[in-house]
Specification:
This protein is about 40% helix and about 20% strand. It has 14 helices and 14 strands. Strand 10 and strand 11 form a beta hairpin.
């Protein structure tokens, strides 16, 4: 079955058409600047040149219409018509406590997703717009929602509760939810395969280090803790997000700079992280590393704080699982930065981690980057959230 995987953001839409049998990507692309002037569709088939088409996209429905047109175009398309697309899998950011696994989307599910929008006001409304647009344009194609939060629903209470009055959990469901679940699930599963180990007996820590970054403790295939919380702002220092801070900092900045709570939260989301620590230099680790190499303080400061926070969480999650067998690096930084991986591993001598310097130079490919005698294994596993969504979608539709 061909599964169309859709990841709908507020002004963008990424898609991949995946053959669930061979697991090959048949076509993929991106709609950019939806609802903004200058919108365009980028469309790519394996082995063919990337096509970029400027086209007006006032809304997501038009974007999906253009995606369908591209996929079914007589000359450059990959399917004859919509009957060759067996299902659509939608990435949905927040599933709250309602969704502990993916679901077939119907009106009740959409209503439940709407209730979760409160918890992810930046993401869920965009995901829902994409779902509605698909429902209109492809009414006969089954749709499945795959939630970023679902994999972490196995966390025990002591891991997901905050130390605030319990009534706020009861009344508003304020708790740790965690995100990037599809990636943590995929990478921990793949690590077990690469190691030839039984996932049911493995303690894994997955470091998803991209622009957004989170880390998880996966014990016997189940997430038992993760660093993002009620929203994706908590945890690691990220590209532009602060991660953990003393909550009082918010009040202090608001007071000193005469800003509203919303404005300070915006600063913590958009102007903080390694971007903020490097004094606004960049949120991209390639720029930070170049800056450090050039002998400047900003890049060095940001990268050291970033790596230190990752190492600290690895320590915490080793304690959470009473041990760790494998540590995985994934996403843009995790897959491509030998420097960050090596800086993190410098803190892990106590776990018996011995980095293989040559293996660690690999970028963007699966590798075990520790020596054969290293007590704890460290791996690079490129994430593939689209494939994981396609697999889950196919399993639900074929059930
Ligand atoms: P997201 O999906 O959260 O937007 P990605 O997982 O795509 O993020 O990661 C993007 C980040 O990966 C970039 O901002 C950059 O910091 C980092 N990155 C990409 N390539 C490299 C590289 N070769 N070396 C170091 N960092 C890289």
């Amino acid at each position: 079955m061909n599964v169309l995987v859709i990841n709908c953001g507020s002004s963008s839409l990424k898609f991949q058409l995946i053959d669930s049998k061979s697991e090959n990507v048949i076509a993929k692309g991106l709609c950019e600047r939806i609802g903004i002037e200058g919108s365009q569709l980028v469309y790519q088939r394996p082995g063919a040149e990337k096509q970029t088409t400027k086209s007006d996209m006032p809304d997501h429905k038009e974007a999906i219409r253009l995606v369908i047109d591209a996929l079914t175009a007589p000359d450059t398309g990959v399917v004859k018509d919509l009957s060759e697309i067996g299902a659509v899998g939608h990435r949905v950011v927040h599933g709250g406590e309602k969704f502990a696994s993916c679901v077939r989307i119907d009106d009740d599910v959409i209503a439940a997703m709407e209730e979760c929008s409160d918890l992810a006001p930046l993401h869920n409304p965009a995901n829902l717009i994409g779902i509605r647009a698909c429902a209109e344009l492809m009414p006969d194609t089954p749709m499945v929602g795959v939630f970023d939060t679902a994999f972490h629903q196995t966390m025990p209470e002591e891991a997901y509760l905050y130390g605030i009055p319990y009534r706020y959990y009861e009344k508003y469901r304020i708790r740790r939810y965690g995100f990037h679940g599809t990636s943590h699930f995929y990478v921990s599963g793949r690590a077990a395969e690469v190691l030839g180990a039984d996932i049911g007996e493995l303690k894994t820590i997955v470091c998803h280090l991209g622009n957004g970054a989170s880390i998880s403790a996966v014990e016997n295939g189940k997430s038992v803790d993760t660093s993002m919380g009620l929203t994706p702002l908590e945890g690691l220092i990220m590209g532009t997000r602060s991660g953990d801070i003393d909550p009082t900092v918010i009040e202090y900045i608001a007071h000193k700079e005469n800003k509203s709570l919303e404005e300070v939260i915006q600063i913590l989301n958009k102007e903080s992280g390694v971007l903020g620590l490097s004094n606004g230099l960049s949120s991209d680790f390639r720029d930070l590393e170049a800056d450090w190499k050039a002998g400047n303080a900003g890049g060095e400061r940001a990268m050291k704080a970033f790596a230190y926070r990752v190492a600290k969480y690895i320590g915490a999650y080793t304690a959470a699982m009473n041990g760790v067998d494998a540590i995985c690096f994934t996403a843009g930084v995790g897959e491509n930065s030998p420097t960050i991986r090596s800086m993190v591993c410098e803190h892990l001598g106590y776990l018996g981690v011995t980095l293989d310097q040559e293996q660690n130079q690999k970028r963007g490919e699966e590798a075990i980057i520790t020596t054969p005698d290293s007590k704890t294994k460290v791996l690079v596993i490129p994430t593939n959230e689209e494939l994981a969504i396609a697999r889950e979608t196919c399993a639900i539709v074929e059930k």
